Amino acid sequence: MYDVLKSNWDNILSKMKNDYEITDVAFRTWIIPLSLHSIDNDTITLVFNGEAPNMAIGIIKNKYMIPLKVVIEELTGKEFNRITILEPNAVSNALEEPDIPTPSKIIQRQNEANLNPIYNFDSFIVGSNNNMAHAVALAVAEQPGTYNPLFIYGGVGLGKTHLMHAIGNYIIENNDQLKVLYTTSESFTNELIDIMRNGKKDNTDFSEFRNKYRNVDVFMIDDIQFIIGKDRTQEEFFHTFNDLYMNQKQIIITSDKPPKDFLLLEDRLKSRFSEGITVDIKSPEYETRVAILQKRAELKHYDIEDSVFEYIADNIVSNVRELEGALKKITLFASLSNSKITLPLAQDVLKDLINPDSTIEVDCNRIIEIVSEHFGISVTDLLSNKKTKNIAYTRQVCMYLCKQLTEETYAGIGKALNRKDHSTIIHGVNKIAEEIEENASTKNNIDVLIKKINPE
Ligand code: ADP
Ligand code: MG
After folding, report:
1. Which pLDDT score is estimated for 98?
2. Which protein residues have their CB within 5 A of the ion that is ligand 2?
């Protein structure tokens, strides 16, 4: 058990951060300094290696013990009743492992690089659809700067983002010098829009932006298709790209299409891209689909019959995200109804999902799922009564998009969002509509979301 916890420690902490919406500063100050010391029956002993240990341990005990227990149980299946926390000087030095890079340092760097530690090479299944992309990605991770730029393209939900994070995580785990930065092209655009809107005359904001993106050794930009055609962003991206490229820094780009298929991509960028390596990821074959499902079940400690994996893999063919969605739906249903995961149960739960001829239907549920994922909020929170700023805002974006993209009435949208009072919906729709008029980055976010909900 000690080994399981030790090797998953980073995942445990970052899941805790995500699930409990722990702020960055609290996470850095209280949680990252916690490391695993020992386990004895149902007691875990941790060491706090941060500042002001006395005070910190009190805060951690009050606020973060329960989240930690829950996440450990979710990830390992084992319930611990007691967690004790020691100050570093209470621990004998003989127990320290000085040569191994501390997990907390790695987590901190992954955090600063915007990387999700769960997306790594170990959890990435290789099949004939992605073996080339995988091999090249690993080569880039081993020798950043050698194959430049790396351009990964492929359809939605096929593992581009996963592979990109895997490269970044690998570099951080194996090299404590290189500075890695992951960004989506949406945040890149939004940051730029914000600076242009605030329009500082002395250009300090621009130089901050440029420093941020140009002072890195590995720059990863996800879903570049959202930048193409936006002149000012594309221009700024070109300069960032060139600067890094000239300095032999590694650049990694993902997109839904190969560079040659972009009509609006400037020639100078097209030719730069063609100097590097371009790899694609296709839809996984049957065996790979089964393996991905098995791996996912193993990571989550689900007990599932093979026939269920085969059934899902037989029927959901195009997209890994949908495969995972199907598995999630089945396990959720089984746990809610307290039943075993069997083939008949899977067939019943998936009957709406499995319809080979269906085209994408844009309804409120699809909008809710995509918008929640986009903002990193769970659908459960979105449909709950929680009123924190992020959740409430995400909900309003759903209201607006449901109104724009479906034929639903306000009452119907209210029902989909678990809201009784339809004046709330009218208010939400109007609020976002006004914000789009006033704020270019909101407009950009909404445009991106519309593309995600309704890809060409
Ligand atoms: P994309 O960026 O291409 O839209 P993602 O990287 O977000 O796709 O992948 C969607 C989901 O599928 C993620 O949860 C990812 O972990 C999973 N996934 C995709 N490909 C694989 C793979 N080869 N092995 C394991 N999981 C995968
Ligand atoms: Mg992606």
Report:
1. 39
2. 160-161
> What's the token pair of residue 321?
């995200």
Distances (CA, A) of 353 to 30, 361, 366: 42, 11, 12
Nearest to 166, CA basis, from 150, 188, 186, 148: 150
CA distance 288 to 313: 9
Q: What is the pLDDT of residue 367?
A: 95
- CA 123–ligand 2 middle distance (angstroms): 16
Residue 57: its pLDDT value, please? 87
Cα 256 to ligand 1 centroid, rounded to whole Å: 14
Name the packing angle between helices 440-453 and 422-438 (round to 10°).
120
Tell me the HSE value of 398 on the side-chain side, using a 13 A CA sphere: 33
Ligand 2 geometric centre to CA of 374 (Å): 10
* Cα–Cα dist 249/244, whole Å: 5
Ligand 1 within 6 A of CB of 158: yes
Nearest 5°: the CA angle 115, 326, 320 is 45
Give residue for tokens 């300094």: 33
Indicate the top mutation candidate among 320, 328, 370 to test ligand 1's pocket, ranked by most ligand atoms within 8 A of CB. 320
| Residue owning the nearest CA to atom 18 of ligand 1 | 159
Long-range CB pairs of 287-295, under 8 A, 24+ apart, other chains included = 287/127, 288/125, 288/126, 288/127, 288/128, 288/129, 288/130, 289/313, 289/316, 289/317, 289/320, 289/323, 291/125, 291/127, 292/125, 292/320, 292/323, 292/324, 293/323, 293/327, 295/123, 295/125
Tokens representing residue 194 in the block: 């914000």
If one counts every other C-beta atom within 10 angstroms of the C-beta of residue 355, the result is: 11
For a ligand 1 pocket test, name from 115, 255, 321, 452 the mutation site with the most ligand atoms within 8 angstroms of its C-beta.
321
Atom of ligand 1 nearest to the CA of 223: 2
DSSP 3-state assignment of 32?
coil
376: left (phi over 0), alpha (psi -120 to 50) or beta: left
Calpha distance 256→225 (Å, rounded): 7
pLDDT reported for residue 197 = 79
Q: CA–CA distance from 157 to each of 317, 322, 338 (Å)?
A: 12, 8, 30
* Per-residue pLDDT reduced to its tens digit, 133-173: 999 999 999 999 989 999 999 999 999 999 999 999 999 99
Nearest Cα residue to atom 23 of ligand 1 = 125
pTM over 0.85: no
Nearest to 411 by CA among 427, 425, 429: 425
| Nearest atom in ligand 1 to 164's CA | 6
